[in-house]
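Amino acids appear as letters; backbone shape is given numerically. Here is one record.
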Amino acid sequence: MNAQRIEDLVTAYKILLNEDVLDGFGHVSVRSATDPARFLMPYALPPALVRAEDIIEYTVADSQPVNSGGRKVNGERYIHGEVYKARPDVQAVIHSHSQAVIPFSVAGVALRPVIVQAGFLPFETPNFEIRDVRAADERGMQITNIARGAALAEKLGNAPVALMRGHGNVVVGASVKQATVYAVYVDVNARMQAAALALNPSIVLMNEPELFDPSEFDINRPWEHYRQKIVGAEELKNIDRTQFGLVQTQAPSGR
């Protein structure tokens, strides 16, 4: 069961790199399909090098590796472990240093949904401040212990996204596919919001009827769109095209 999740995890790294969401850092994890008290994540290596054999299993309780095999584990694994601990609904976690998103974490301008594909965003994306939790004798902005991870998970709350001041963002989903697509559209929404604000500081935001429930958004469609950009021509021939489209979007609206 975990084999498919690991395959999707590796694909997520490739997609997020190709879409310039991940840089030389950043990381993606998935909850174990066989034991929800564990999660899967690569050891500490550049995202571009991640392979299935690089995945390590961690315990949600303390974010420690079950067996690292002598490999250096990721220092910010506490982001993932504490989110999984606080959110039983979450099956995948992504932390990126999206260059489009970071300005919203430091400029005092809330990241808000402005494009249709970002209808999963809250009206104001929460913004985590490391200074609120960092001890007086500690340094740095990374999430390197349980206390920092728990504080970030608390700031995330029930939202799908939280900004991290000067650091990036964390995106969660009910699957690797959903989290990956959301991470891409958080980046796109940030770029579009910044572009709109540059034209006029008074912009039109999405309202409640324009947001969507996850069941109303066909994750497979953008996932396969981004995935096909990183696969070969032969694999493209074998994609199941019958999986796309939602029935509720096909009927006329009556207007």
Observations:
- Helices lie at 2-18, 77-86, 102-106, 146-156, 176-199, 220-228, 233-237.
- The mean pLDDT is 93.
